[in-house]
């Protein structure tokens, strides 16, 4: 995946190519970005709640809960087939898959990284309140910012730096208050291990987002054409399959498949509720994953991290309403800092677009 140009020039070319396939519109006026945002809202607001409810109702399979975060990827087959037949009507020689071999290999690597990230997050959700784990995951924005600077030469403004600092301060406040919201039945060791694993998941996810952006940009630079939404879905399908394979291997080694029927019988919501919760979790997490990749395509990796951050208050309110989780003043301040950081970032973005003329969009599309 090397291009024989100096590193700094190479990164500039790659980043510029990534944006060539979409119109340079203000973020809030790009309909596909808005759709991606809505998918993220649905997935991120409900996914952690469903996953936490699995553990509260008697579930205890960490590898299974890791699998749920990517197992819904087969639902992408239907829209991918529809896109293929639509392209086929325009050209009989259209390829079945738009992914290049290098992009396919890169997506498999990202999928394995995602599988590990899902496992770390599953341990965090098992031992932490949803409100705490969600705020901790918001620190991925700081990690995303750092890796985006290294990998895709993300440009920073005073507003984006302010957003990262505010989120970091909020997470540090939670760390100093750690243990004050420890759920019943969770030992102190389990609580702090969940705390550490959630931060690890945030750091790894902060690396995954810029890697996805870089993969899309490299594809544009090599193929000389735009990344389309069909290609985004293909990437997500491969990432989901690789991550699911990672979790399935862990389930086999951990003997989870033999335990699942007994766990379903003893589940607090009943056997039907058990399997319904599993299917619902897999579906909403897949919608979120599709949304985050769309946000990267039509915005940037840093934008995807910022959108996740603004959803924290939604998750916090729902966790208090459904699970009656304690909501301390420290958490309130952390949420306020998260919202402040989000507003700061978007204020800077909207101001930057207002000062720049729109660029013409690239019409060299691969699919309809």
TrEMBL record:
Pfam families for the chain: PUNUT (PF16913)
One cellular component term from this protein's GO annotations in UniProt: membrane
Molecular function terms from GO: purine nucleobase transmembrane transporter activity; purine nucleoside transmembrane transporter activity
Keyword terms of this UniProt record: Membrane, Transmembrane, Transmembrane helix, Transport
Compartmental location: Membrane
Top-level taxonomic group: Eukaryota
Membrane-spanning segments: 33-51, 63-84, 96-114, 126-152, 159-179, 191-214, 226-253, 273-298, 305-323, 329-347
Keyword DNA-binding: no
Xref: InterPro entries: EmrE-like (IPR037185), PUP_plant (IPR030182)
Membrane topology: Multi-pass membrane protein
Main location: membrane
Record SUPFAM superfamilies: Multidrug resistance efflux transporter EmrE (SSF103481)
Family, similarity comment: Belongs to the purine permeases (TC 2.A.7.14) family.
Name of this chain's protein: Probable purine permease
The species this protein was found in: Lolium multiflorum
């Amino acid at each position: 995946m090397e291009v024989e140009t100096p590193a700094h020039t190479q990164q500039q070319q790659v980043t510029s190519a990534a944006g060539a396939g979409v119109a340079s519109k203000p973020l809030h006026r790009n309909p596909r970005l808005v759709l991606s945002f809505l998918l993220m809202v649905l997935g991120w607001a409900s996914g952690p709640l469903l996953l936490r409810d699995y553990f509260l109702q008697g579930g205890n399979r960490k590898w299974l809960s890791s699998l749920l975060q990517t197992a819904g990827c087969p639902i992408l087959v239907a829209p991918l087939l529809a896109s293929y037949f639509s392209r086929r009507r325009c050209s009989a020689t259209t390829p079945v898959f738009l992914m290049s071999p290098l992009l396919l290999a890169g997506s498999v690597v990202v999928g394995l990284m995602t599988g590990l990230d899902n496992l770390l997050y599953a341990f965090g959700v098992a031992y932490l309140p949803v409100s705490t784990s969600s705020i901790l995951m918001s620190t991925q924005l700081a990690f995303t910012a750092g890796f985006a600077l290294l990998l895709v030469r993300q440009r920073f403004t005073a507003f984006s730096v302010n957003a990262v600092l505010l989120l970091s301060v909020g997470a540090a406040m939670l760390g100093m208050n750690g243990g004050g919201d420890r759920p019943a039945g969770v030992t102190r060791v389990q609580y702090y291990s969940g705390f550490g694993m959630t931060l690890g998941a945030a750091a790894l996810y902060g690396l995954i987002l810029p890697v996805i952006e870089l993969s899309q940009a490299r594809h544009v630079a090599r193929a000389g054409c735009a990344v389309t939404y069909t290609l985004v879905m293909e990437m997500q399908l491969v990432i989901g399959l690789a991550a699911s394979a990672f979790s399935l291997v862990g389930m086999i080694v951990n003997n989870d498949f033999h335990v699942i029927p007994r766990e379903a019988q003893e589940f607090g919501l009943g056997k039907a509720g058990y399997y319904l919760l599993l299917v619902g979790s897999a579906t909403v997490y897949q919608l979120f994953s599709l949304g985050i990749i769309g946000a990267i395509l039509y915005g940037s990796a840093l934008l995807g991290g910022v959108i996740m951050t603004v959803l924290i208050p939604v998750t916090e309110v729902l966790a208090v309403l459904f699970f009656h989780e304690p909501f301390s003043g420290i958490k309130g301040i952390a949420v306020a800092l998260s919202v402040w950081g989000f507003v700061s970032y978007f204020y800077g973005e909207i101001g930057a677009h207002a000062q720049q003329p729109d660029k013409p969009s690239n019409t060299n599309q691969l699919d309809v």
